[in-house]
Write a structure and sequence with these properties.
It is built from two helices and two strands. The protein is an alpha+beta fold.
Length: 94
């Protein structure tokens, strides 16, 4: 799952990539994603996933370990630009 290839399934589930610190990855593997209520994140509280592993390089805040997960985005916010782009688009529901 390296490179810029995106992996999508026919049922709407996507393979999402999340990059974080090695210690956080160990915690996530044990306890799952726990969202800190005090955290604001780039676009609000939540766990962020890229649709290809290469995109974690410019979206992640912490580096060193990759998590690959099946993600059901439902009607969640989708952003099509990098984390530092002030014109990031809200593609909710598309």
């Amino acid at each position: 799952h390296t490179g810029s290839r995106q992996y999508r399934r026919d049922d709407g589930i996507m393979i999402g990539f999340h990059q974080t610190s090695p210690s956080a990855a160990i915690g996530i593997s044990k306890d799952g994603f726990r969202i800190n209520p005090a955290s604001s994140g780039m676009l609000g509280r939540g766990a962020y996933f890229a649709t290809c592993i290469d995109h974690t390089e410019f979206k992640a805040e912490h580096f060193g370990a990759y998590i690959c997960a099946l993600v059901d985005p439902g009607n969640d916010l989708r952003v099509t630009t990098n984390r530092n782009d002030p014109d990031a688009k809200d593609n909710r529901g598309t």
